[in-house]
Specification:
Layout (H helix, E strand, L loop, with lengths): L4 E6 L16 E4 H6 L1 H10 L1 H5 L5 E4 L2 H7 L6 H10 L4 E3 L11 H24 L5 E3 L8 H12 L6 E3 L3 H5 L3 H12 L8 E3 L8 H6 L4 E4 L1 H7 L2 E4 L2 E4 L11 H5 L2 H6 L2 H29 L2 H8 L4 H9 L4 H6 L9 E2 L9 H11 L6 E5 L6 H4 L5 H4 L13 E7 L3 E4 L11 E2 L6 H17 L7 H8 L18 H13 L3 H5 L4 E5 L6 E6 L2 E6 L6 E3 L1 H10 L6 E4 L4 H5 L4 E2 L3 E4 L8 E5 L5 E7 L3 H6 L4 E8 L2
Parallel strand pairs: 1-2, 1-8, 2-3, 4-5, 6-7, 7-8, 11-15, 12-13, 20-23
Antiparallel strand pairs: 9-10, 13-14, 16-17, 17-18, 18-19, 20-22, 21-25, 23-24, 24-25
The chain binds guanine (GUN) and zinc ion.
The site of guanine has 13 residues, from helix 4.
Length: about 625
């Protein structure tokens, strides 16, 4: 099944839309409604839920918790509803959680949560005792208290549930409390296992999908498609349109192409509802396709920033993500297919920027620092020495010791980019317009002031402020005077430090270096030390792919378990042969590993077996029990 996925809600009795003609791979229906209706109940028990709702694929059922939250009571016990769902052959069942409303008192929330947790545990134990085939949802509750959401997620993670929905968010969405939705979802997902799908319960509006997926949600359910249609409302990624206000159809789906708003207004209610519902499903599935493609392209955050501009409260939610940039950074692949596009001040809080600024704050600094104005990228090609006089902020203007100076370029969005590494992803592969918004300027100024302090330098030139204040401009290339920044040895060492850690460059590239370049592009390709290949520089992102000797040197230089993935005895022979490593064989790994990192593969005695590219981050590698973790490049035999 493709994820993120949308499960259309099927009404067991009054369903009029056949959802099979859309991208539907899985549906959700309500077991409690079936249970309460003698006729439906009998049919479901004898023929199964799939026959009852006429859907062959996976069926998820809800337990009646939602009815509980609306009517205050249901006449079924937790055990009974689990048993009933198994009896009607549900693929994924749900225990009877208590949806605690947003902004409920903390006392009541704690009380409800206690019952939700007891029932989740009871359900899992009952399922195991009865050897049930059905998968189980354990719903995260905790109202709008992030610490209770996290606590609930922690407790549920100890159970062996198959999916972790996030519940009681419908009132937040109905009331545009998207900022609180971000807190609720982030405090929940950051405490759930990575290998288990998360379902944002009741989220069926397509304008929310990108944001929810960026926060780590995999499943959505939509009753919205039919509920909105019954009210003559069209879902779109720009929000909701009422038929009475429409002069134009809102999209290019089949329905919108074949009918005009007047056609619809002239129709019988039932026929009209059906057509609007179809539009609503078309739009919802189309948006999920856009989201899935954005994940592949690596520009989901651009999509989130774009979608969140359709409503001020959504923009507020997008800004609230700032608080969680460290959580999001963990899941952000180190390298992506797409360039980084600035869409507004929110872009400065994206994981890529956070990651770069953290690296800068921890880098090995040289004695002096020169900050240069922004020019064309890659900067090192276009900046020339004669520009310094005007711009550097510390040190003697006349006899600058080039070897002991860090040269950095002022940049949007990355604040400062060391010239030596300005060709690596995404420092070179990004675009921003001339910046004139106060938020962005303040962000960059604040970072630079902090950074200058790190250099123990008291002098920050007012020039930097000026440079930002007036916007950033180009300086023209002067190819005669760029010796120091064309120092390839310095450059390859700096990139290795940026990629693998401080000091790595000096260590792996020691000896007599030969730096081979592409004849066509002039870009660095291969680095040899005393005649042995150490690393290749990948043309697309200027990061290194290690060769055998490079991997050995990295292994010698870094302490266990840095840059390493530790595999068990069973998988050792496979790794040595150069076969890929599966997550279930991994015993331990460096917490700094992110998807797309180059990593060393070792055994428990820290013997180097192989090296390769991580396909997942640390958390995922440790949590997943199926699938590949590392694509091995070479084994040491
Ligand atoms: N549907 C929408 N919200 C909820 C919830 O909190 N729990 C359950 N079980 N179903 C829901
Ligand atoms: Zn349409």
């Amino acid at each position: 099944m493709k994820t993120p996925a949308l499960m259309p809600v099927i009404h067991p009795k009054k369903q009029k839309i056949d959802v099979k003609k859309f991208d539907t791979e899985i549906v959700i229906t309500n077991a409690y409604l079936v249970y309460k209706d003698e006729e439906l109940k009998e049919k479901a028990l004898s023929e199964g839920i799939h026959k009852l709702i006429n859907f062959d694929g996976p069926v998820m059922t809800d337990s009646g918790s939602f009815q509980l939250s609306v009517y205050g009571d249901v006449d079924i016990s937790n055990k009974e509803v689990i048993e009933f769902q198994e009896a009607i052959k549900t693929d994924i069942g749900t225990s009877l959680d208590i949806p605690t409303a947003p902004y409920e008192t903390i006392e009541k929330t704690k009380e409800d949560l206690k019952i939700t947790l007891e029932r989740a545990k009871e359900a899992v134990e009952y399922k195991e005792a009865k050897n049930m085939e059905m998968l189980l949802n354990s719903v995260v509750q905790g109202s709008t208290y992030p610490e209770l959401r996290s606590y609930c997620a922690d407790e549920l993670s100890k159970l062996n549930a198959d999916l972790y929905p996030i519940g009681a968010v419908v009132p937040l969405m109905e009331n545009y409390k998207y900022r609180d939705l971000v807190d609720v979802v982030m405090s929940s997902v950051s405490h759930l296992p990575d290998s288990t799908p998360r379902h944002l319960m009741g989220a069926g509006h397509p304008m929310l999908f990108a944001l929810a997926v960026a926060m780590g949600c995999d499943l959505f359910d939509s009753a919205a498609y039919i509920l909105y249609a019954e009210d003559d409302r069209f879902l779109t990624t720009r929000g909701t349109y009422k038929l009475e206000n429409l002069q134009e159809m809102p999209c290019s789906c089949k329905i919108c192409n074949n009918y005009t708003p007047d056609d619809l207004r002239a129709m019988e209610k039932d026929e009209r509802t059906k057509l609007i519902a179809e539009h609503n499903l078309n739009v919802s599935f189309a948006e999920l396709r856009v989201v899935r493609q954005a994940i592949i392209d690596g520009d989901l955050m651009e999509l989130v920033e774009e979608r969140c501009r359709v409503h001020p409260m959504l923009l507020d939610a997008c800004r609230q993500l700032d608080k969680y940039t460290d959580d999001l950074e963990l899941y952000d692949p180190r390298i992506k297919k797409s360039a980084f596009f600035y869409t507004g001040p929110e872009s400065l809080r994206r994981p890529e920027v956070t990651r770069h600024l953290n690296k800068l704050k921890n880098m090995d600094k040289k004695r002096d620092l020169v900050i240069l104005p922004k020019s064309r990228k890659p900067y090192s090609k276009y900046i020339n020495k004669s520009d310094f006089g005007d711009f550097y902020t510390y040190g003697s203007e006349t006899d600058l010791d080039l070897d002991n100076t860090d040269f950095m370029v002022l940049d949007v969005p990355f604040c400062l980019i060391p010239l030596d590494i300005d060709e690596v992803y995404p420092l070179s592969q990004n675009e921003s317009p001339k910046i004139n918004d106060i938020d962005s300027i303040e962000f960059i100024e604040n970072f630079i002031s902090e950074f200058i302090e790190y250099y123990d330098q008291t002098l920050i030139s007012s020039k930097i402020i000026d440079l930002l204040g007036i916007g950033l401009y180009n300086i023209h290339p002067d190819s005669d005077n760029v010796k120091f920044i064309k120092d390839d040895e310095r450059k390859v060492k700096a990139i290795a430090d940026y990629q693998f850690g401080n000091g790595v460059g000096e260590f792996i590239f020691e000896g007599n270096l030969k730096i081979e370049k592409s004849k066509n592009t002039g870009k660095i390709r291969h680095i040899y030390s005393d005649g042995t290949l150490i690393a290749n520089m990948r043309a697309s992102d200027s990061f290194f792919v290690l060769a055998k000797e490079g991997a050995k040197r990295l292994h010698r230089f870094k302490a266990f378990p840095e840059n390493r993935v530790v595999v068990n005895k069973d998988s050792e022979p496979f790794a040595r042969e150069g076969k890929s490593v599966f997550s279930k064989f991994v015993l331990d790994c460096d917490t700094n590993i992110r998807s797309k990192d180059e990593v060393l593969i070792v055994n428990e005695d820290d013997e180097l077996l192989a090296f390769g590219k991580a396909l997942l981050n640390h958390n995922e590698i440790m949590d997943f029990n199926t699938g590949q973790a590392i694509k091995t490049r070479k084994g040491f035999g």
